[in-house]
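Sanity check

After download, print the first record. It should look like this:
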Amino acid sequence: MVDMSDQLNLEKVPAAAAAKRSGTHHRHSWMWKTLRVIPLPGVMLAIYNLLLVGGGDMEVRMSARAFALNLPSGASWAMSLGHLLVAIAVITLYFEMLKATRTSTGSVPDHVLSLLVAGVYLIEFIVVPGCGTSTFLVLGLISFLDVVAGFTISIVAARRDLAFQGGD
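Expected structure tokens:
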């Protein structure tokens, strides 16, 4: 009789290990590593600054229609560029919260970079005329919330890990 316990059971193998064996791990690992390092509110800051380089009144540009949809109710729904940027920033904030739950050595540089991005938002809001818009202020507040929530979540996760290991 053959002992089946020595054979590899793919259902018990973590997905990451299975992906690594299949070769799909290497295709996407650089993307995930990059997303783990870069604070996503910094990406929103870069997008806003690229729009700023285009020139013109930023208040007018932020209120310009990004797109419009006709709803089944018959109403026409339009979203401005500023609202679109804020909506994307809220989605990126969710991913930043997920990143904050890791308790590895890479989380400290991530928090420092997030703090620097929030500082750049503050400085640009005060000093750069095109950044004195409500859209930029909300993007900056999202970045500040990322910093505060990131530190808070990391501390709670670290305490949970210590309690789980019996260090409480």
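If your output differs, re-run the checksum step. Summary of this record's structure: Residues 44 and 89 are 7 Å apart (CA to CA).
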